[in-house]
Design goal:
The chain is α/β, with parallel strands linked by helices and 229 residues long. It has a single domain, classed as Rossmann fold (3-Layer(aba) Sandwich), CATH 3.40.50.300. The chain has seven helices and ten strands. The strands form two sheets. A six-stranded mixed sheet has the order 6-7-8-3-9-10, with helices on both faces. Strands 2-1-4-5 form a four-stranded antiparallel sheet, covered by helices on one side. Helix 3 crosses helix 4. The protein is globular and about 55 Å long. It binds adenosine-5'-triphosphate and magnesium ion.
Amino acid sequence: MSTVVEMLNVTKTFGEGSSIVKALDGVDIRIEKGEFVAIVGASGSGKSTMMNLIGCLDRPTTGLVKVAGEDLSNLNDKKLTSLRNYAIGFVFQSFFLLPKTDALDNVATPLFYRGVPAKEARKKAMEMLSKLGMADRYTHQSTELSGGQQQRVAIARALVTQPSLILADEPTGALDSTTGKQVMDLFENLNREGITIVLITHDLEIAKRAKRRITLKDGKIINDERGAA
Ligand SMILES: Nc1ncnc2c1ncn2[C@@H]1O[C@H](COP(=O)(O)OP(=O)(O)OP(=O)(O)O)[C@@H](O)[C@H]1O
Ligand SMILES: [Mg+2]
Protein backbone atom coordinates (compact mmCIF):
# COMPACT_ATOMS: atom_id res chain seq x y z
CA MET A 1 0.00 0.00 0.00
CA SER A 2 1.19 3.53 -0.53
CA THR A 3 0.59 6.37 1.85
CA VAL A 4 -1.35 9.31 0.44
CA VAL A 5 -1.35 11.54 3.54
CA GLU A 6 0.90 11.48 6.56
CA MET A 7 0.92 13.85 9.53
CA LEU A 8 3.40 13.54 12.38
CA ASN A 9 2.92 15.59 15.54
CA VAL A 10 1.31 18.43 13.60
CA THR A 11 0.31 21.66 15.26
CA LYS A 12 -1.27 24.70 13.68
CA THR A 13 -1.67 27.86 15.69
CA PHE A 14 -3.33 31.12 14.76
CA GLY A 15 -2.68 34.48 16.38
CA GLU A 16 -0.15 35.10 19.12
CA GLY A 17 0.25 35.94 22.79
CA SER A 18 -2.87 35.68 24.88
CA SER A 19 -5.12 35.32 21.82
CA ILE A 20 -3.28 32.29 20.44
CA VAL A 21 -5.52 29.48 19.14
CA LYS A 22 -4.25 25.93 18.76
CA ALA A 23 -6.37 24.80 15.82
CA LEU A 24 -4.43 21.52 15.61
CA ASP A 25 -2.60 20.19 18.62
CA GLY A 26 -0.31 17.20 18.08
CA VAL A 27 -2.07 15.36 15.26
CA ASP A 28 -0.72 12.06 13.89
CA ILE A 29 -2.46 10.36 10.97
CA ARG A 30 -1.65 8.15 8.06
CA ILE A 31 -4.07 7.66 5.21
CA GLU A 32 -3.32 4.90 2.70
CA LYS A 33 -4.26 4.71 -0.95
CA GLY A 34 -7.81 3.42 -1.38
CA GLU A 35 -9.11 4.54 2.01
CA PHE A 36 -12.46 6.30 2.48
CA VAL A 37 -12.12 8.54 5.54
CA ALA A 38 -14.59 10.87 7.19
CA ILE A 39 -13.24 13.61 9.44
CA VAL A 40 -15.84 14.60 12.01
CA GLY A 41 -16.03 16.87 15.03
CA ALA A 42 -17.82 19.87 16.45
CA SER A 43 -17.57 23.34 14.97
CA GLY A 44 -14.13 24.77 15.69
CA SER A 45 -12.54 21.35 16.34
CA GLY A 46 -9.99 21.80 13.55
CA LYS A 47 -11.56 19.96 10.58
CA SER A 48 -11.05 22.68 7.99
CA THR A 49 -7.59 23.43 9.33
CA MET A 50 -6.71 19.78 8.81
CA MET A 51 -8.24 19.81 5.35
CA ASN A 52 -6.27 22.90 4.38
CA LEU A 53 -3.06 21.12 5.32
CA ILE A 54 -3.97 17.91 3.49
CA GLY A 55 -5.03 20.04 0.51
CA CYS A 56 -1.69 21.88 0.41
CA LEU A 57 -3.52 25.16 0.95
CA ASP A 58 -1.58 25.88 4.12
CA ARG A 59 1.49 24.75 6.04
CA PRO A 60 1.76 23.42 9.60
CA THR A 61 3.21 25.55 12.40
CA THR A 62 5.24 22.55 13.56
CA GLY A 63 5.37 18.88 12.60
CA LEU A 64 5.53 16.96 9.38
CA VAL A 65 2.89 16.87 6.64
CA LYS A 66 3.43 14.61 3.64
CA VAL A 67 1.02 14.49 0.72
CA ALA A 68 1.54 12.01 -2.14
CA GLY A 69 4.99 11.31 -0.73
CA GLU A 70 6.10 14.97 -0.71
CA ASP A 71 7.12 16.69 2.53
CA LEU A 72 5.35 20.07 2.33
CA SER A 73 8.16 21.83 4.16
CA ASN A 74 10.49 21.01 1.27
CA LEU A 75 8.24 22.65 -1.31
CA ASN A 76 8.17 26.32 -2.24
CA ASP A 77 4.80 27.94 -2.94
CA LYS A 78 4.98 27.18 -6.64
CA LYS A 79 5.67 23.48 -6.07
CA LEU A 80 2.95 23.37 -3.42
CA THR A 81 0.44 24.74 -5.93
CA SER A 82 1.58 22.23 -8.49
CA LEU A 83 1.19 19.32 -6.04
CA ARG A 84 -2.27 20.59 -5.18
CA ASN A 85 -3.25 20.80 -8.85
CA TYR A 86 -1.90 17.41 -9.80
CA ALA A 87 -2.55 15.20 -6.80
CA ILE A 88 -5.85 16.44 -5.40
CA GLY A 89 -9.41 16.88 -6.60
CA PHE A 90 -11.43 19.28 -4.45
CA VAL A 91 -15.18 19.15 -3.82
CA PHE A 92 -16.86 21.84 -1.73
CA GLN A 93 -20.19 22.42 -0.06
CA SER A 94 -21.02 25.26 -2.46
CA PHE A 95 -20.17 23.74 -5.77
CA PHE A 96 -18.19 26.69 -7.22
CA LEU A 97 -19.14 26.00 -10.82
CA LEU A 98 -18.20 28.70 -13.28
CA PRO A 99 -21.22 30.85 -14.22
CA LYS A 100 -22.29 31.22 -17.85
CA THR A 101 -20.30 28.08 -18.64
CA ASP A 102 -21.88 24.79 -19.60
CA ALA A 103 -21.35 21.58 -17.63
CA LEU A 104 -18.92 20.24 -20.24
CA ASP A 105 -16.56 23.22 -20.06
CA ASN A 106 -16.84 23.39 -16.28
CA VAL A 107 -15.49 19.84 -16.13
CA ALA A 108 -12.89 20.51 -18.85
CA THR A 109 -11.52 23.68 -17.19
CA PRO A 110 -8.80 22.01 -15.06
CA LEU A 111 -7.53 20.38 -18.26
CA PHE A 112 -7.62 23.70 -20.15
CA TYR A 113 -5.43 25.14 -17.37
CA ARG A 114 -2.95 22.36 -17.92
CA GLY A 115 -2.71 23.15 -21.60
CA VAL A 116 -4.57 20.07 -22.81
CA PRO A 117 -5.94 20.85 -26.30
CA ALA A 118 -9.62 21.85 -26.15
CA LYS A 119 -10.89 18.94 -28.20
CA GLU A 120 -9.12 16.34 -26.09
CA ALA A 121 -10.09 18.14 -22.85
CA ARG A 122 -13.77 18.15 -23.83
CA LYS A 123 -13.62 14.48 -24.81
CA LYS A 124 -12.27 13.58 -21.36
CA ALA A 125 -14.81 15.88 -19.70
CA MET A 126 -17.62 14.17 -21.59
CA GLU A 127 -16.40 10.74 -20.48
CA MET A 128 -16.38 11.91 -16.88
CA LEU A 129 -19.88 13.43 -17.13
CA SER A 130 -21.14 10.16 -18.61
CA LYS A 131 -19.60 8.23 -15.78
CA LEU A 132 -21.50 10.38 -13.29
CA GLY A 133 -24.77 10.03 -15.20
CA MET A 134 -24.72 13.62 -16.44
CA ALA A 135 -24.06 13.06 -20.17
CA ASP A 136 -27.50 14.35 -21.18
CA ARG A 137 -26.92 17.62 -19.32
CA TYR A 138 -23.57 18.61 -20.81
CA THR A 139 -24.87 21.77 -22.46
CA HIS A 140 -26.59 23.00 -19.28
CA GLN A 141 -25.25 25.89 -17.24
CA SER A 142 -25.24 25.65 -13.45
CA THR A 143 -28.41 27.77 -13.14
CA GLU A 144 -30.16 25.07 -15.20
CA LEU A 145 -29.14 22.23 -12.91
CA SER A 146 -30.42 21.01 -9.53
CA GLY A 147 -28.12 21.08 -6.50
CA GLY A 148 -27.38 17.36 -6.78
CA GLN A 149 -26.66 17.70 -10.49
CA GLN A 150 -24.34 20.66 -9.83
CA GLN A 151 -22.46 18.60 -7.24
CA ARG A 152 -22.11 15.76 -9.75
CA VAL A 153 -20.62 18.21 -12.26
CA ALA A 154 -18.27 19.49 -9.54
CA ILE A 155 -17.24 15.91 -8.72
CA ALA A 156 -16.65 15.19 -12.42
CA ARG A 157 -14.44 18.30 -12.51
CA ALA A 158 -12.51 17.09 -9.46
CA LEU A 159 -11.97 13.70 -11.10
CA VAL A 160 -11.09 14.72 -14.64
CA THR A 161 -7.42 15.23 -13.83
CA GLN A 162 -7.25 11.71 -12.29
CA PRO A 163 -6.07 12.86 -8.85
CA SER A 164 -4.85 10.30 -6.34
CA LEU A 165 -7.00 11.91 -3.65
CA ILE A 166 -10.46 13.45 -3.51
CA LEU A 167 -10.82 15.96 -0.70
CA ALA A 168 -14.39 16.97 0.03
CA ASP A 169 -15.39 19.62 2.61
CA GLU A 170 -19.05 19.15 3.58
CA PRO A 171 -19.95 17.92 0.05
CA THR A 172 -23.50 17.10 1.10
CA GLY A 173 -23.96 20.18 3.30
CA ALA A 174 -26.01 22.10 0.75
CA LEU A 175 -28.09 19.13 -0.40
CA ASP A 176 -31.32 17.61 0.89
CA SER A 177 -30.83 14.22 2.56
CA THR A 178 -31.91 12.11 -0.45
CA THR A 179 -29.58 13.94 -2.81
CA GLY A 180 -26.84 13.83 -0.18
CA LYS A 181 -27.22 10.03 -0.05
CA GLN A 182 -26.89 9.87 -3.84
CA VAL A 183 -23.66 11.85 -3.67
CA MET A 184 -22.42 9.39 -1.04
CA ASP A 185 -23.39 6.48 -3.36
CA LEU A 186 -21.21 8.12 -5.97
CA PHE A 187 -18.27 8.47 -3.60
CA GLU A 188 -18.68 4.82 -2.59
CA ASN A 189 -18.54 3.73 -6.23
CA LEU A 190 -15.46 5.87 -6.88
CA ASN A 191 -13.79 4.49 -3.77
CA ARG A 192 -14.53 0.93 -4.95
CA GLU A 193 -12.53 1.80 -8.07
CA GLY A 194 -9.60 2.62 -5.82
CA ILE A 195 -9.84 6.40 -5.41
CA THR A 196 -8.84 7.66 -1.97
CA ILE A 197 -11.49 9.90 -0.43
CA VAL A 198 -11.24 12.20 2.58
CA LEU A 199 -14.54 13.79 3.45
CA ILE A 200 -15.25 16.39 6.11
CA THR A 201 -18.69 16.38 7.59
CA HIS A 202 -20.50 17.13 10.81
CA ASP A 203 -23.33 14.82 9.73
CA LEU A 204 -22.88 11.50 11.54
CA GLU A 205 -25.22 9.64 9.15
CA ILE A 206 -22.94 10.64 6.28
CA ALA A 207 -19.81 9.81 8.26
CA LYS A 208 -21.12 6.31 9.07
CA ARG A 209 -20.86 5.41 5.42
CA ALA A 210 -17.10 6.02 5.28
CA LYS A 211 -14.81 3.07 6.01
CA ARG A 212 -12.93 5.04 8.65
CA ARG A 213 -13.94 7.91 10.93
CA ILE A 214 -11.49 10.28 12.55
CA THR A 215 -12.97 12.47 15.28
CA LEU A 216 -11.37 15.79 16.22
CA LYS A 217 -11.92 17.70 19.44
CA ASP A 218 -10.07 20.89 20.31
CA GLY A 219 -7.47 20.18 17.63
CA LYS A 220 -6.76 16.63 18.84
CA ILE A 221 -7.77 13.27 17.43
CA ILE A 222 -9.96 11.66 20.08
CA ASN A 223 -11.18 8.70 18.04
CA ASP A 224 -10.08 6.83 14.91
CA GLU A 225 -12.32 3.89 14.07
CA ARG A 226 -12.48 1.57 11.08
CA GLY A 227 -15.25 -0.56 9.66
CA ALA A 228 -19.00 -0.04 9.57
CA ALA A 229 -20.34 2.26 12.27
N1 LIG B 1 -7.36 31.96 9.93
C1 LIG B 1 -7.63 31.80 11.23
N2 LIG B 1 -7.29 32.76 12.13
C2 LIG B 1 -7.55 32.60 13.44
N3 LIG B 1 -8.15 31.51 13.96
C3 LIG B 1 -8.51 30.54 13.12
C4 LIG B 1 -8.27 30.62 11.70
N4 LIG B 1 -8.74 29.49 11.12
C5 LIG B 1 -9.24 28.75 12.12
N5 LIG B 1 -9.09 29.36 13.32
C6 LIG B 1 -9.51 28.81 14.63
O1 LIG B 1 -9.03 27.48 14.73
C7 LIG B 1 -10.00 26.63 15.30
C8 LIG B 1 -10.33 25.50 14.33
O2 LIG B 1 -11.02 26.04 13.21
P1 LIG B 1 -11.53 25.17 11.97
O3 LIG B 1 -11.98 26.10 10.92
O4 LIG B 1 -10.47 24.20 11.59
O5 LIG B 1 -12.76 24.37 12.62
P2 LIG B 1 -13.83 23.40 11.94
O6 LIG B 1 -13.77 22.12 12.69
O7 LIG B 1 -13.62 23.35 10.47
O8 LIG B 1 -15.23 24.10 12.28
P3 LIG B 1 -16.60 24.22 11.42
O9 LIG B 1 -17.32 22.90 11.60
O10 LIG B 1 -17.30 25.34 12.09
O11 LIG B 1 -16.23 24.50 10.00
C9 LIG B 1 -11.18 27.51 15.65
O12 LIG B 1 -11.06 27.87 17.00
C10 LIG B 1 -11.02 28.71 14.76
O13 LIG B 1 -11.56 29.85 15.35
MG1 LIG C 1 -14.79 23.99 8.81
